[in-house]
Amino acid sequence: MGREAVAGAFADIRAALAVLNAEVDGCGSEPFSAVDPLAGLADGSLDILAGAAAVEAGVAGLKARAAMKYAGTAHALAPPGMPVQAQEMAVAAEIGCVLAIGPRAASAFLAVSHALTSTLPLTLAALQAGTISWQHARGMADEAATLDAAGAAALEAHFLDPDTPRPAGAATIGEMPAYRFRHKARTWRERHHPESLEKRHTKAVADRRVEYSPDQDGMAWLSAYLPAHQAMAGWNRLNALARGMQGPHEARTLTQLRADHFASAILTSGTSTSSGDGAETGTDLTPSSRIRAQVLVTVPVLALMGVTDEPAMLDGYGPIPASMARDLVANGADAFHRVLVDPRDGAPLEIGRTSYRVTKAMRNWLRLRDGTCPFPGCSNPSLDNEADHLLAWHHGGTTGISNLGQPCPKHHKLRHTTGWTPTPATTNQPPGWTSPTGRHYKSEHQDWEPPHWPQPVLSAMPAHLKPRERRNGQEHQPKPYPPMPAEPGGHADYLYIPRSPGEESLHRFLYGGS
């Protein structure tokens, strides 16, 4: 059939689009709901949105396959002796003209299409099935670009293989925005890259820089490529300074205040100098005080001790080199909290107490559990978020981790002023959300992984304390967490709560004493 079949298929697609557009306009042959046409139209419009997203993904997969098929045939038809680079330029130029995109965008599209059709079969299949978007597929290809074939296969299997164990309530990668999936994929890549994060970070530090880019309306962008802990510390300090300035007499928004403090910090120390008669003579150009790391860092205990170079987790960023985490501890980072993680599955152990007041320890645990605001797709970092009782205290709700969320101010307001409601949480799973239409949306889960145990440590460890074995290709699932214990008087850096006599023995094995 050839061209006639292609033309007929696209004619059918255009006819289907005409039908769907009529349905959106409420001009279909039948209403979505005869009982309540307006509510039915609203619900039907969401169905059309969801269906359109799946079709868009399928079309994106088709475009990738068609582009690579054209590239393959173009190379086969190229004159003998034509340089490979010239062939690639010619292919990119043709693809760019057909899709009406620039040469750089065409080359990027071809690079992703090649990765999908050659090394990422699960990603391409998910894209064609409409369960992930093109943005998700591009994120997978970008993170797999520096991995060998085995590493790329392991990366996509971790996220897309249906046999990979994952929490029942966890959102799949297609149920979260692509930029949130990129964060997860980057975290996995940093942990499993064949070259250690320490070595890669050492190389990357040499590329630190500040960049300037003009923009419209007399504005410009000034950005810096910095080590993660410095960038996060600066961002958190700007947030703290901006929040401290807010009040009934401050007209500037939080975003404007952050920008103003940033400009003040890089231009001056923020203070002015004056002459004796009160007239300003200039600004003090001496460096401002050293920015301290206002962050939460989770470090595997053996990495903290220098036994391994396992990555630590920087709150709001992701994996960082163990040496960076050790430096934060050694230099007295203001908000560093030691968190003992379960040596078997990598999840932190619970802290907290039972009372209406949410303690600092419980807030830290919420930060560990959720990472960001638990509303689907929100990446507001945990330092900006507010502890919230899922079931209100005056309705019988308790102050326990399973009844607490930490939505950002925007989604906290959404919960209390609209029909959006959070669904139950657990000690290690954040709450999901139900919309006014009754649709349920899952929250993103943290990707805890078992710490690495060096062979000398494993050899000296009692058999019943060693990390659990894998059976039938899967690790045993962790036992449910115990109820929230009461916090003893006073606040410590961390509170260790053994789940069993064996776990208590492990704590003594690592730390000595009781």
UniProtKB/TrEMBL annotation:
Composition-biased stretches (Basic and acidic residues): 441-450
A GO term, aspect molecular function: endonuclease activity
Biased composition (Polar residues): 428-437
SMART domains per UniProt: HNHc
UniProt keywords, alphabetically: Endonuclease, Hydrolase, Nuclease
Residue stretches making up the HNH nuclease domain: 361-413
Region of interest (Disordered), ranges: 418-456, 468-499
Low complexity bias (residue ranges): 418-427
Official protein name in the record: HNH endonuclease
Species classification: Bacteria, Bacillati, Actinomycetota, Actinomycetes, Micrococcales
